[in-house]
Amino acid sequence: MANDNNQQNEYFEDRAGSEDARFHVVPHDDKGWAVKREGEDDPELTTGSKEDAVSKAKELAKDASTMAIIHDDDGKIEDQLNFES
From the CA atom positions of the chain, what is the Rg in Å? Predict the structure, then answer.
C-alpha cells in the first residue's frame, strides 16, 4: 500500500503546476468551497456554493482538456469528471 501512495504522489507532482494539472473542488474555510488547480496554493475561485464551484471547475477542466475532481465535505473524492481529449 505504501508503494501505491508513493506512485500516486509522484504522478501528482509531475502534473502539479503544469497544463495537465487537474481542478479540485474542495471545502474552503468554514462554509465555503474552492476550486484549486493541483500544485497551486491559491484557489482559482472561492464561493459559498458547492454547485458554483463544481460549475467553474467543469468549465476550467473542459477548457484545459483535463479533469475536475469533486470532493465531499470531508475532503474525500466524490466524483471525477474527465474532459481529457
Answer: 13
> What is the span of the domain harbouring residue 69?
2-82
C-alpha cell at 78: 466524490
Number of structural domains the chain divides into: 1
For the entire predicted model, the pTM comes to 0.78
Asked if residue 27 has pLDDT above 80, the reply is yes
- Among 84, 81, 78, 80, smallest CA distance to 27 is for 78
**Using alpha carbons only, what angle is made at residue 30 by residues 76 and 15, rounded to the nearest 5 degrees?**
40
Alpha-carbon gap, residue 64 to 19, rounded angstroms:
7
